[in-house]
Specification:
alpha/beta; Rossmann fold; five-stranded parallel β-sheet; 5 strands
Amino acid sequence: MMTSLRPIILVEDNPDDERLTIRALRRGNIVNEILVARNGEEALEMVLNANPLPSVVLLDLKLPKVEGLEVLRQIRANERTHKLPVVVLTSSSEEGDIIGSYDLGANSYVRKPVETDKFTEAIRQLGMYWAVINELPEVRKP
């Protein structure tokens, strides 16, 4: 059964990382709409009010206004979004961030590679898995 593509929500406050991520997804032939939130407050509004729900949220941790772990906590606390795939995509390799992300229900934790080629390939693989390969449950209307 072919369903319409759900968008990808990218939560990223760094314009360079935003551009690189979108370019990598497009190079990986990911055609889903990509919605960008540039701070935690925008991310929560976008995710909690999304219709349809996105196929995945790519969530940076170090964000203005509302920090990434708090965004994740609120996504998981909401009945409509608690099963939504959330991939933490961050430059942080701090053990506390990794443990905190998984404790709050992150589906994956990916540290952004510094080298552009490795970054592009990592994002392409993420997009392919979460937007194309991964199966999502049907969302019931509230």
